[in-house]
């Protein structure tokens, strides 16, 4: 679908990923981009969903309640309910309003806890997700079922994208809500500023993750919105697996922190390993351009200037 001259609803448009997607969409010369705030449209409310999708050609649904593993562990009910209801109600409202394309952003947390490496989209239903993040992952995963059902019964065009851990300038560095990279950057920068001798990090450091720089993610999302037309989910990532230990040590080096890293093994690691099969994304022309070290340097520089 060509975005040029189209009317686009971008939920979550004022968030971390949303702000970058907004910039990418502008390059496509849409007729209008409507990006309501949560105050303007509570998407857990059916009437609000029906209101925001009027006269819209494309919906890109990024709005979500999410945080780091600690936040997820403490708020599983809110995470499941709000994310599931927002997606379900907005897709139903979009279908009834005649929206031409609906784009949902899922999460790598949808994958089973023990999935063969690399994660292939065909393996999504081969087991239960990692227990801590399951409420969030399953709330998003149910939208795949809705997408397939609506395509079969109504011919409704919706796609489901699975990005890995995102990071970059403008990330959420709130202690309660931040993901692993912003949380580590905050700890190491503050430790250096305060001349601390050590930094404590959750888990063993042995778990692995895949990280996608935010600008690459936004480009991949907009590209998929134009080039991909299947309810089968599609991974967005780099295909590169990195241990949390290596990430922490790299951040420590870039920041210039010379103290000790202490691993708190009373805290959960989360899913043991993550690395995506990104071959399907390559078929539509997406390939991440920003290496992890370069992306970390840009993110740390931004954080040091703004905090």
Element layout with pairings:
Layout: E1 7-11, H1 16-26, E2 32-34, H2 46-52, E3 58-61, H3 69-74, H4 76-97, E4 101-105, H5 134-154, E5 158-163, E6 165-167, H6 180-193, E7 198-202, E8 208-209, E9 211-213, H7 214-227, E10 234-236, E11 242-243, H8 244-255, E12 260-264, H9 279-283, H10 292-306
Parallel strand pairs: 1-2, 1-3, 3-4, 4-5, 5-10, 6-9, 7-12
Antiparallel strand pairs: 8-11
Helix pairs in contact: 1-7, 4-5, 6-8, 6-10, 8-10
Q: Characteristics of this structure?
A:
alpha/beta, UDP-galactose 4-epimerase, domain 1, 307 residues, two-stranded parallel ribbon, 2 domains
What does this structure look like?
This protein has 307 residues and is an alpha/beta fold. The protein has two domains: 7-167 and 210-240 and 275-283, Rossmann fold, CATH 3.40.50.720; 180-207 and 241-272 and 292-306, UDP-galactose 4-epimerase, domain 1, CATH 3.90.25. It is built from ten helices and twelve strands. It has helices spanning 16-26, 46-52, 69-74, 76-97, 134-154, 180-193, 214-227, 244-255, 279-283, 292-306, and strands spanning 7-11, 32-34, 58-61, 101-105, 158-163, 165-167, 198-202, 208-209, 211-213, 234-236, 242-243, 260-264. The protein has a six-stranded parallel beta sheet with strand order 2-1-3-4-5-10, sandwiched between helices. A two-stranded parallel ribbon has the order 6-9. A two-stranded parallel ribbon has the order 7-12. Strand 1, helix 1 (16-26) and strand 2 form a beta-alpha-beta unit. The mean pLDDT is 96.
């Amino acid at each position: 679908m060509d975005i040029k001259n189209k009317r686009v609803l971008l939920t979550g448009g004022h968030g971390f990923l949303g702000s970058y997607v907004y910039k990418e969409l502008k390059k496509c010369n849409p007729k209008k981009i409507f990006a309501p705030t949560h105050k303007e449209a509570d998407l857990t409310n059916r009437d609000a969903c029906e209101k925001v999708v009027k006269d819209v050609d494309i919906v890109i649904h990024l709005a979500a309640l999410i945080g780091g593993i600690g936040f997820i562990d403490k708020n599983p009910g809110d995470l499941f309910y709000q994310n599931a209801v927002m997606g379900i109600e907005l897709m139903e409202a979009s279908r009834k309003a005649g929206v031409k394309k609906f784009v949902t952003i899922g999460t790598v947390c949808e994958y089973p806890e023990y999935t063969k490496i690399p994660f292939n989209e065909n393996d999504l239903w081969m087991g239960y997700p990692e227990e801590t993040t399951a409420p969030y992952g399953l709330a998003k995963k149910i939208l795949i079922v809705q997408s397939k059902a609506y395509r079969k019964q109504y011919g409704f065009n919706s796609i489901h994208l699975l990005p890995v851990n995102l990071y970059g300038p403008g990330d959420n560095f709130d202690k309660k809500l931040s993901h692993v990279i912003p949380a580590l950057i905050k700890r190491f920068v503050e430790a250096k500023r305060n001349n601390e001798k050590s930094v404590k990090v959750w888990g063993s450091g042995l778990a692995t993750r895949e990280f996608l720089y935010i600008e690459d993610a936004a480009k991949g999302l907009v590209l998929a919105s134009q080039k991909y037309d299947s309810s089968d989910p599609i991974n967005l990532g780099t295909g590169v697996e990195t241990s949390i230990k290596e990430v922490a040590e790299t951040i420590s080096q870039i920041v210039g922190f010379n103290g000790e890293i202490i691993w708190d093994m009373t805290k959960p690691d989360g899913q043991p390993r993550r690395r995506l099969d990104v071959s399907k994304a390559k078929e539509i022309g997406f390939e991440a351009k920003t290496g992890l070290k370069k992306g970390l340097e840009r993110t740390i520089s931004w954080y040091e200037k703004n905090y």
